[in-house]
Design a protein that fits this description.
Elements: H1 2-6, H2 14-23, E1 24-29, E2 35-39, E3 52-55, H3 67-73
Antiparallel strand pairs: 1-2, 2-3
Amino acid sequence: MLKAIFTWWNGATIGARFTFWRRGVFVGKDELGNSYYQAKDTSDSYDGRKRRWVIYNGYAEASKVPAEWHGWLHHTFDEPPTVAPLLRRSWEKDTQPNLTGTVHAWRPKGSIARGGERQKAAGDYEAWRPE
């Protein structure tokens, strides 16, 4: 209960949930458990379009929003995926979390974090040496 009162990074605060309940309409939920809302009117809009929100299921991380819902949130699609599902191509991959800053982050060859030596420069590169 205290998390819901004081933390915004673990879902939404009670104040935010109250605002969504009062000013928004529930639109749908994705497979990760995130909830999506749209404003009832354009009273707080800056461009004449209804505002759209997401309440994350757990830690608030933007990479947890699937592509179809991201497009709807940013007004790329007029209809939410619950009404007009986005066609999924065979070559598309599943949504993955942002692993930057974790032990699972990608580290290229030669990265200090990987503990490797970088390859010698080829071609005409010559290191500068102070005289």
